[in-house]
Design a protein that fits this description.
- The chain has 5 helices and no strands.
- By secondary structure, the chain is mostly helical.
- The protein has 2 domains: 1-70; 78-137, no CATH class.
- Helix 1 packs across helix 2 (38-53) and helix 3 (63-77) crosses helix 4.
- The longest helix is centred in the first third of the chain and has 23 residues, at 3-25.
- It is elongated, with a radius of gyration of 22 Å.
- The termini are far apart.
Length: 154
């Protein structure tokens, strides 16, 4: 890997971690909490990166640490060991990486916490979205809704 590529990759990692730190630190900024807790999301991602890739535990990430750990994960899902991922192999890697997000989304649908999502649970968020998007209140979303301002609804 060229030095320039390594430097750019490291700057990207440092930028993400810096943004996560700034987001976490600025949580006391007036109005910041009104943004759906995004600062927690970025701080959580930054911490996840540190936990995943800071293999020597020094509180800093190097490109070598990141590429070594990512290489291990790659090999784990390279089922035939040919040094390349097929779509099926990549799907396994993707599903492994996205499992935590999937569980979070499942829990957002499972309002009563019974470990099951009913059809009503599944559609609830889209019903709210349609209510918000249907600005003129005619029961459908179309071009006519662009000209109306959002109005308060119960």
């Amino acid at each position: 890997m060229k030095l320039r590529t390594k430097v750019l990759a490291m700057l990207g990692v440092v930028g993400v971690l810096g943004a996560a730190g700034i987001a976490a630190a600025s949580g006391k900024h007036e109005g910041y909490h009104d943004r759906s807790g995004d600062h927690h999301k970025y701080a959580k991602r930054g911490m996840h990166m540190m936990e995943t890739y800071d293999t020597n535990g020094d509180g800093a990430l190097t490109l070598d640490e990141i590429t070594t750990e990512r290489g291990k994960k790659f090999k784990q899902f390279d089922a035939n060991g040919d040094g390349a991922l097929t779509l099926d192999e990549y799907q396994g890697l993707w599903m492994d990486a996205m499992r935590e997000r999937m569980v979070d989304r499942f829990q957002k649908h499972d309002d009563d916490g019974d470990g099951k999502i009913s059809v009503d649970d599944f559609n609830k968020r889209f019903k709210r979205m349609m209510t918000w998007m249907d600005r003129n209140g005619d029961g459908k979303v179309d071009r006519d809704d662009r000209g109306y301002r959002h109005r308060d609804r119960d």
